[in-house]
Each structure stands twice: as C-alpha cells, then as structure tokens.
Predict the structure.
Amino acid sequence: MSAQMEAVIGLEVHAELLTRSKIFCGCSAGFGAPPNTNVCPVCLGMPGVLPVLNRRVVEFAIRAGLATGCAVAPSSIFARKNYFYPDIPKGYQISQYELPICAGGHIDVVTEAGTKRVGLTRIHMEEDTGKNVHDAHAADSLVDFNRSGVPLLEIVSEPDLRTPADAGAYLRTLRSILQYLEVCDGNMEEGSFRCDANVSVRPRGQKELGTKVEIKNMNSFRAVERALVHEIARQEQALADGERIVQETRLWDADREETRSMRSKESAHDYRYFPDPDLLPLVVDPAWIAEIRRTMPELPADRRDRFEREHGLSAYDADVLTQRKDVADYFEAGVGAGAPAKDMANWTMTEILRIVRDEKLDEALVIRSWPIGPTQLAKLIQLVATGAVNRNTAKGLLPRLRGTDLDPEELVRREGLAQVSDRGALEAAVRDVIARCPDQVAQIRAGKEKVMGFLVGQVMKATGGKANAQMVQDLLRAALAESS
Amino acid sequence: MSALHDLSLRDAAMRVRRREVSAVELTRATLARIAATEPQVGAYLTVCGDEALAAAAAIDRRVAAGEDVGRLAGVPIALKDIICTAGVRTTAGSRILERFVPPYDATVTARLRNAGAVIVGKLNCDEFAMGSSTENSGVGTTRNPWDGTRVPGGSSGGSAAAVAARSCFGALGTDTGGSIRLPAAYCSVVGLKPTYGRVSRYGVMAYASSLDQVGPLARDVADAAVLFDAIAGHDAKDSTSSPRPSRALAGSLEGGVRGLRLGMPREYFVEGMQPDVERAVREAVRVLETAGASVESVSLPHSEYAIATYYLIATAEASSNLARYDGVRYGLRVAKPGSSVGEMYAGTRAAGLGAEVKRRIMLGTYALSAGYYDAYYLKALQVRTLIAQDFTKALAGCDALVAPIAPTTAFRLGEKTADPLTMYLSDIFTISVNLAGLPGMSVPCGFDGDGLPIGLQLIGKPFDEATLLRVAAAYEGSTEWRQRGPRL
C-alpha cells in the first residue's frame, strides 16, 4: 500500500462455545455426529416450542468479557434477527442486539510496531445456524441441524487495526485468550472460530473513515491476512482510478486469491430486530460475576510477562510458550521437575512443538497426548546437563521414550548409552586414532584446524557415539601437543 | 337420569373414581354426542376416537388397580387445535399445517393427561388464532350452537361451541386479545384467560408470544377451576412462565362477594353498544351488589389506544413467529422441480396461509422495519405500559373489574369477513387485558332478544384468578343462565 494511504480494519469473530449442550435446548453441542442426530423440537424450530437459556453460555460470555476488560451488563436482552434461509429453522436467529451482555473492552496485541491496544465494541451471545449440504444429491439441497442452536459468542472489535498483519496478530491473541478460558477450541478449519472483516482505506491523516466493505468466507488466519491484503489493494487501486468504493459484502476466494461481490448495501437484509418475547431480560447477579472473576485463569499476556520475569526467558520464547495454555503448562511442569528453564524452553520449542505441529496434535483445545511427558523431558534435560549423556544421544532417545512412561535415566542405563567420560578409556581411543590417521595429524599441525573435527568424529565412532565430546577435544589437543 | 354427556366435568370425574361409570363409557358417550352434534356445529377438526378409547381403557385399568388417577379421571376433554398433541395432527386451523402431526405434547396437554383427562379431539379456531369469529380457519367451519347462522366467536370458537354443545366436558383455548372470552360469551360458557405467565405456552403454536395464554372453557365456573388447576403452574420449558407457586382453586370458590369492591370501567360502556348487552351487564352488576359487593366507577383512560397498540405488537410478534412455516422441515411445501428456495418459500406461504394471516404478517413486518420501528413498535410498547398502568391504578382501589365482553352478541357468519377493521372491534373490551397481562374471565349473564348469549367480563389483579373465580361462582349461583342450553 502506498505511503499516503492507510487501511482501517475491524473484525467480527464468531466463537463456538465448548458447552456440553446447546444454548436453548438440551441437545449435545458436540461436533461430528451423523446429520440431524443432535436435534430436538426446539432446535428444529417446530411449532409451539420455546427456548430456555443455558446458564453455562452466560458464564462463558462473562468469562470472555472479564478477560477482555469489558463491562458486564447487569441486564441484557435477547433479540430476534429475522431472515429466511433453510439453515435457520425458526425464520429468525436468537441473538443480542441493543443490549449485549458485554461491551467496551480491549485486547493488547503484540505487533511488529510494539504492543497495540485494540478496542472491543461488544461481545454478545447467539445461536448458530444449521448447515446446508449441497453435494450429496444433485437436485435437492439437504440441511443438517446438528449445529442449529450451538452457542456462539460474537466478538466485535473497534476499527482499530491498520494492517493485515495486525489483524492476524489480533486474531491469534483473541483465540489464545478464549482457549485459556476454555470457552472455545479456536479451530478455524472446523469453523469453531470464524472471522468476518470490515475494511476501508483512507488517506493517511484523514479522520473520516472511507466506505467499508465486509469480507466473509475466510477459513484460516492466513486467509484473513491474504484477503485483507487483496481487498486493501483493490480499494486503493479503485480510488486511484477515480472510482467510488461501494458498501457491500464480498466473499474471499482462496483458490483464486480474490474477493468477489456477494451483495450490495441496497440488497442487504432488514433484519427487523426486536426483543425476543420468549425470553426474559437476562439479569446477572453481581455475586455471580465476582465468583467467575475469582476462578479466572492466568491469561496469556500475564503469563508471558511472568515467564520473562520468573524464568528469565526472552520475549520471543515467552510469547511462543504462552500462546497455548497447555504448552505453557507443559513448560512449567518441566521446570518444576528440575529442568533448567532455558533448556526446557529450547527443548520444548525445537523438539516437542515440532512434533506437535507435524502430527497436528494441537488441533484439539487441549493436547491430550504429548510426544513425551514434561517430567520425562525434564529428566532427559538433566541427564544432558550433568553430563550423563550427550545432547545427540538425548535427542536420539526421544522416539524411544514416546508413548511410554519410561524413566530416561533407566533407559540410558539399560541400553548402555551413558556418556563415556572415563579418562583412561578415552585416552586409549585418542591414541589409537592419532596412530591410525597420520595424514590428518600432519594437516592439523600444518594449521588446518578444521581437520580436528574429523579426528573427534573418529573417536566418537570408536566409542559408539557415547563419548563426552568436550573431553575428546581436550584430550586430542593434549595428545597432539605432546607428540609434536 | 340425564344423559352421560350432560354431567358436569366434576361429576363425571367423581363417578369414574367411584367406578360408577367407566372412562370408556364416558368416552363412548362423548363420541356419540360428537357424532350427533357435529353436523350442526362443526367444532371438531379432528376426533381421535381410537386414541381416546385406548386412553380411557388405561384409566379404567388404573382405577381398577386402586390408583389415584387424578382430578380429571377419565373425562373426555378437547383442545383448541393450536395446542400440540403427540401423534394427533395439530393444524392451527391452517392449510399450511393441515397434515402436521407433532411428535410432542404441549405442557398443558401433558398436564391434562397426567390429571387423568382423555383427549377426545381437536377443535377449530381462526388460523393461528387470528380472528374473532373462527371464520378465518382454513380447515373447517364452526357454527354457533345457539344459532347456526351465527359465528361462535373466536378465535377459540371450536372450544366454546363444543363445550356449549356438550360434545366434550371441557376444553382448552388460547386468548391473545379475547380469544377465549369472546367465544365463551357468544356461546354461553365459562371462559378463563389466566394471568400472563400462569400457564405454560410450551407446545402452543405461537401467535403473539407476549400476549398468548392458554385457559379453560367449561360448562360452569367450578369446572373451569378444575381445568385451570390442572394446567396452571411453573414450567421449566417456558421461560416466561411464572415461578410463583400455583394454589389449587377448585375447592375455594364459595367465599361469596360480600365486602368485595368491584370497579366498572367507564370506557367500557360506550355509544353504539347493543342495548340488550348493556342491560344484561348492568343487571349482572346489580346482582353482585345485591349479593354484597360494592361497585364503583373507575377509569381506564388509555382504552381508546388498545386496538391500535394490540395490532402493532401482536402482528410484529406474529410476523416473526410464523416465519418458521417455510416448507423446509414440516407442513405444506409448494415447489416445482427445479424451483429456487425463494420460489419454494413464496409458493408454500402463498398457498398455505390465509388472507388474514398474510395481512397480519405484512402489518407486523412493516411495524418492525428499519425506519418504522420507533414510530410503530416501540411506540406501541410505550402505550402498552400506559394501558397496564391504567389497570394498576384502577385495581388499586378494587378487587376486580366488571365489564361487558363485547359490544354485541354473536354476529352472522360472513357479516364482518369483508371488513377486517369492524371485525377487530369485536375485541375492544377484551384486548387491553392481554396488553396488561391480567387474568380475565367470561361468565354467561343472559340473552338478547334473539336468544343469543351475553357474557359478563371479570378482570382481576395479576395472579389473582382466585378472586375472579369466586366472584364468578357467586354470580353464577345467583342466576339460572347455565340451566339453559342450545337446542341441538
């Protein structure tokens, strides 16, 4: 984007809540059941049925509100959003409109330009729709109502974001918070964390906002950033060409890497919101809010700061390790089991998280099966730190420890993998190598230091990889000096 | 001895419990009465004889086993066809639901069954309870048992007509703007609209959610009290149902009216009222005075806005409530192969919904539209508050209000169908009670020169059905109106 222009971005996130039952009936809110099996007269919109609010949904909304500095409304109202669509069984969606449960919060987002505070306009509760299924039969469309009535939080940001990267950082931070709160699993691919964006461009320094365009159909963080990059460029080009931006909704096409117009403002729905007469105003007892506040977990930003402070981690390491609560818990469990914090951080980030990502273990809200337990890892790290095994041997042990509760120390003993630090044994091996490699010895003496590595490798080979590498170096130098 | 179908609901239940008559005999007698009267009345849309006989036989077995089968033991009851009955079609008087069979009972249906009632059939009504004459039914025509050329009133016209025709021992209706009380008056039966929130709405097809309330129609006040007791009380499935405990009232109707203060709203005695109606209502008030009540004039100054207020709020809610009848999941679907979803919606609703329902959906859609919401819907909510305050003030100095139910007696079939506004005015004395959420009742109080029934309206404080029933019982006991029945 040109230096004279800036983009203004606001995001609307729909987070599916991890309650056991739906928002207005007792059906399971679980994902993945056969079509139309988690349904009842209420979530099918049968004649005469009535909604009854799931208190757990309110609790989750309050948790999200407290975590983001929102004011929790003592009384809020459910409203009907009226429109016709086959996946919306009542012809209206129960949502909140004029009086949402939470308003006026913020999220601090770490961006390239430092920490940026992004305002939250509101957080409200609503029911999810069913799902239209078009592929199975050629002529008819089918509807699966399992998702109908699954609770959602809609989290609306202020137009405080300026770049696609900021938007991505905001979304990652918000997802992290919701995951810490255990209210949403944050899975964008499965649709449990969905995002629509409002974006406009304006000359830098101008106060008035440009005409905004809403973008939908972005199914990953990457898609959000790509779609924003493209939409901002499109709007900028349009303005440069003297065109006017039309207020409209556009769909992101990830395959073609472009946004496409879906509907204009003129054809937008009039949702005819009005208070749902089937539900009383939701009055929240301040004592309940206080109770929820008492049971709030430490949030990612606080934990990040604490990791830097208490464990002496770099800002980067602390950030990586605290994005997910389970990862942060893993790290701290290892430190608690005696691993030095820096080593635990390195091993967790380079070894453990690599496996987690490769094997997609992080798709669940909580990683259930770690490659190896944090206590096992801590012991392994301690074996390296005390010189009992060398680092390569330790890494080589990871696959052996997977899915077991083996004590690494015992494994080392049983397999005879202990690092050879016995001076006598190593001196013999060093002497032997020097005798066998006169050419290389000559090269080193001629100043080719690099060849030293070859000699070290020969000694390691002779000891089955178990030799203490530092001792080998020292002994080699000493032997070379002696025999010169 | 009179025929079984002439027994009061209480007598019938008592005889079943005493094993003097079986539930099956009562049910057969009712089915025979239905067969005899239906050609003239047309109250029933569905008669579920097989299910009723099976339920009656089950009651008899339980009675034989010495079980307590409840206050409504083995008594055939019929329901307005807007109240869901598991396994028995429930049409709401609409072609769009003509073949709809709900898989669930409404809470009131379940409560009647639990009290031992035998559900014998489903009764005609104006489509989705929208109307005052039952002529808006898309499924059948009901005639007033007192005069086959007249309407039974509405929207619970089938319920009132069946009770008057003695083709059931009692019935449930719903009342959104007068839909129990008006037909009760037109057919000379007792009708009670409980306080909003007193009876569960779960499983009752919604017309206007903030106004709808289920209530009994019965041959006399004591029968109405028994039915009310069976259905009243909190229901966890209806968030608007009151958590207040519901006290059984059937046993405490005898208190009389001595010392009670009754208010007569000035605005309910208006120019253009049928003279016989005004005379009968004033005479009823005198009867109550003679029995020891004091009567004073009170004012409900915002009454003139009630009809307009009602037709904004009720239609707004209806426009949303009826959106679910879209042809997707149940009910009628009109779509040609290859038609779009929009064409399916339009085709289904055009064919399935009647003219009055469409009119109200359009009115309500308009009232809620962007740019009109504040001027119409929001304003109506404000006026509703004023109307409710009128009643609060009037009832601060009285125990109950007495008034006519309607300005006229039953009108002729077809007389008002061409003019919806005239039809709307039938509810002018009943509609405010729904807006205020209060209990209201209709008790027979005489006949006009043509022999058509007239109803006395009683309006009470919130959750004070007890006083209404007590006043109604005292009045009923001082008069002989309930001895008269239609000639069928």
Q: What stands out?
A: Chain A is about 40% helix and 20% strand. The first helix of chain A runs from residue 55 to 67. Chain A touches chain B at residues 41, 44-53, 80, 82, 84-86, 89-92, 139, 141, 143, 270, 272-274, 277-280 (CB under 8 Å). Residues 5-290 of chain A form one domain.
